[in-house]
UniProtKB/TrEMBL annotation:
Belongs to the class V-like SAM-binding methyltransferase superfamily. Plant protein-lysine LSMT methyltransferase family. PROSITE patterns: SAM_MT127 (PS51583), SET (PS50280). S-adenosyl-L-methionine binds at residues 79-81, 221, 241-242. Signal peptide: none annotated. One of its GO terms (cellular component) is chloroplast. GO terms for biological process: methylation. GO terms for molecular function: [ribulose-bisphosphate carboxylase]-lysine N-methyltransferase activity; protein-lysine N-methyltransferase activity. It is an enzyme of class 2 (transferase). The keyword Phosphoprotein does not apply. It comes from Brassica campestris. Its EC number is 2.1.1.259. This is [fructose-bisphosphate aldolase]-lysine N-methyltransferase. It comes from the Eukaryota.
């Protein structure tokens, strides 16, 4: 599904899920950003901790994973559950280590009772199916772990229609709806090909809500980008929360050998900063995600303006008479038929964006640049304005797209900021408002960039002038030099 805003020549559109809707749906880290209230550490051995968490901690002890010497333990924290230091923990010090036999991964699903059914499934779908089946099996070996998993997160895929209405106009809304549509299609396929023909393997039945739950768990809690492991749930380690004050993902976790004479692997979680005894242990989930991505993945946003972004989608229309030539040039320079450009609040336009949009807009008297003699130099020429008509067109197209996108919002930035000032908002409502503000600020920023450029059209130097200067036919003041 691609919701688009078609403007001017039709080569710029506002995307929904076209950028992120591939079947891998990268699974990354967990849930909630830390709040300002203090941590309330609770010993995992006391009755103050919820019974299911105490049972989980005991299970880990029985498995030889934790002991009285463990550096951290589960605790009730402002985010819900988290890991709290039992003693001072140094920077880059190991907090916990979990052996591979306690990981949940595609390998786990393949080795389970439903393993024979998982061969042709996407890795994440096989793990999702495994989680759902184990969840309804009271005798599951994973029972104590499954009992500490939440029934939902604040990810926007779990929002009601009324809550989603607060995201009107945002790319987050279209991405959320696209993700839900993708999940519905995946579940329908799974139901027809696996669940229905094998009802004896799923006596409790499986619903779309079950599938959504499993997806939410994986999207918010699974670790990725690990050595030989693209998608894995790590019990206990997945209680670690995110802190925006931590600016690096380096050294937070890794997979290593269990010992010189052991073939087993360990997931090793380290603290990226010093943590005093009783303090919560945090990591940085992803320094590059936008607030919209954080909201979709984990259900929180940050106040950092660098998290506010908007994706401009620019494509070469197949109806363009120079489609083939333009596509060849784009691909030669690392681009494609469609270009996605993330504009971040307070930052300049992404590298290559102006070149790409100038290429897409090329036509008329400027089309000579598409000839083969310019194939090795055209990308360099596109770094600078080509012609007044070309530059004027891209300014108009981008500004029209920004105005169209801004008109889709039901509120202004000022109205949203007033709502935040008044306070007493539901967490999801507050998240929606912050995302709306962020996207609108970036759209206004983009519009201002190209508005300023429109004011410079009469003084910009274009290709023909630069070429004449290179040939020595124009002076420094723009005068034509006549040869005698």
């Amino acid at each position: 599904m691609t919701a688009s805003v078609t403007v001017a020549t039709g080569f710029l559109r506002s995307p929904s899920v076209s950028k992120s809707q591939n079947t891998s749906f990268l699974f990354t880290r967990q849930r909630i950003s830390p709040k300002k209230s203090s941590v309330r550490p609770i010993s995992a051995s006391t009755s103050e901790l919820p019974e299911n968490v105490r049972s989980f901690w005991k299970w880990l002890g029985d498995q030889g994973v934790v002991s009285a010497k463990s550096a951290a333990e589960p605790a009730v924290v402002p985010e819900g559950l988290g890991l709290v230091a039992r003693r001072d923990i140094g920077r880059n010090e190991v907090v916990l280590e979990i052996p591979k036999r306690l990981w949940i991964s595609p390998e786990t699903a393949a080795a389970s009772k439903i393993g024979a059914l998982c061969g042709g499934l996407k890795p994440w779908v096989s793990v999702a199916l495994f989680l759902i089946r184990e969840k309804y099996d009271e005798d599951s070996a994973w029972r104590v772990y499954l009992d500490v998993l939440p029934e939902s997160t604040d990810s926007t895929i779990f929002w009601s229609e009324e809550e989603l209405a607060e995201l009107k106009g945002t790319q987050l809304l279209s991405n959320t709806l696209g993700a839900k549509e993708y999940l519905e299609n995946e579940f329908s396929k799974l139901e027809q090909e696996i669940i229905q023909p094998n009802k004896d393997m799923f006596p409790s039945g499986i619903t779309l809500d079950d599938f959504m739950w499993a997806f939410g768990i994986l999207r918010s809690r699974a670790f990725s980008r690990l050595r030989g492991q693209d998608l894995v749930l790590i019990p206990l380690a997945d209680l670690i929360n995110h802190n925006p004050e931590i600016k690096t993902e380096d050294y937070a976790y890794e997979i290593k050998g269990a010992g010189l004479f052991s073939r087993d692997l360990l997931f090793s979680l380290k603290s990226p900063v010093y943590v005093k005894a009783g303090g919560q242990v945090y990591i940085q989930y992803d320094v590059n995600k936008s607030n919209a991505e954080l909201a979709l993945d984990y259900g929180f946003v940050e106040s950092n303006p660098n998290r506010n972004s908007y994706t401009l989608t620019i494509e070469i229309p197949e109806s363009d008479p120079f489609f083939g030539d333009k596509l060849d040039i784009a691909e030669t320079n690392g681009m494609a038929e469609t270009g996605y450009f993330d504009i971040v609040e307070g930052q300049s336009l992404p590298a290559g964006m102006l070149q790409y949009i100038r290429l897409v807009a090329l036509g008329g008297s400027d089309a000579f640049l598409l000839e083969s003699i310019f194939s090795n130099t055209i990308w360099g020429h596109l770094e600078l304005p080509v012609s007044r008509s070309n530059e004027e067109l891209i300014c108009r197209v981008v500004r029209d797209a920004c105005k169209s996108a801004l008109s889709g919002f039901a509120t202004t930035i000022e109205e949203d900021e007033k709502l935040l000032e008044e306070g007493k908002l539901d967490p999801r409502m507050e998240l929606a408002i912050k995302v709306r503000i962020g996207e609108k600020k970036v759209l206004q920023q983009i519009d201002q960039i190209f508005k300023d450029r429109e004011l410079e059209l009469d003084v910009l130097e274009y290709y023909q002038e630069r070429r004449l200067k290179d040939l020595g036919l124009v002076g420094e003041q723009g005068e034509i030099i006549f040869w005698e």
